Amino acid sequence: MAMAEATQPSGDRVNRTAYNLAFDTPLPFFQHLNQSPSGADMFAGYMSSLDVAGGTAQHHLLRAFDWAALGDAHVVDHALPTPPLHGAGPPRRDPPSPSPSPRSNPNPEPIPIPIPNPTHRPNPKIHLTPHDFFTPQPPPIAQTANIYLLRRILHNWPDHHAIQILQHLVDAMSTKISLDRQTQHSGSKSPPQPPLLFIMDTILPASPGEITAYQEGLLRMRDLVMGQSFNSGERGWEGWVRLLRATTPPLRVVRPVVKPVGSHMSGLVLGVDVDVAVDFDFDGVGGEEGIWSVRFFFLSII
Fold this sequence. Notes:
By secondary structure, this protein is of the alpha/beta class. The chain is built from nine helices and ten strands. It has a single domain, classed as Vaccinia Virus protein VP39 (Rossmann fold).
């Protein structure tokens, strides 16, 4: 990519980034990375290091949500850990171009990255299934999933693509809500719990001083990396609100937003209510427990 082209406004095009200029490629980041075994292995190692390092370690995920309270539940994780892939690269979806010239396609379509040996399961309760999250959830998933997990996923994607990902999950959650209501009307005594979406990702501070300068520096650095690589970025609360309101029906925060002590990321527990439109405000971090306070204002749909 020429410098003149790279410096032109590119909107949410994921193949018009600083990465494309630096490596002289028209391909999006993950697609280009997976063309090089050494590059994919290096990135897989980097992702593995994040899962054990300080503010991005996996144990924060266990503290951000009461998983035990789910009981015998069906959890759909769209952020599979890197180590089981044995260097095949991250289980993301890259947007290539179906045309001969990827540069000419402003909204490339996603392609799946295969998961090697999906039948190998370290735990019989865990099933690895390739899925393109830019497409609808398979009916068996949509009809049974109790909670969906997106951990460090949406920051890889500009708003346009992130909304596509969320909309397919909202559609699946709405499907289960409808089926559960039919079951309840047919004689079920206790109403089932509605499906949830749990997002574990960064919420940038709205103003200086909300977190330490060191912590904010790390988040701002990652924000720059997201922009350089994907034309995306870390989001502040207002950015998250825009995403949640953009789906039909909109997603709503159903529990206080939790930021575990020592974590760089926060946990958002979201639900879909086909009968209620929701507006909400955000007050920032409160208390030593790292709990984010949220106010809800429910508006009836006319």
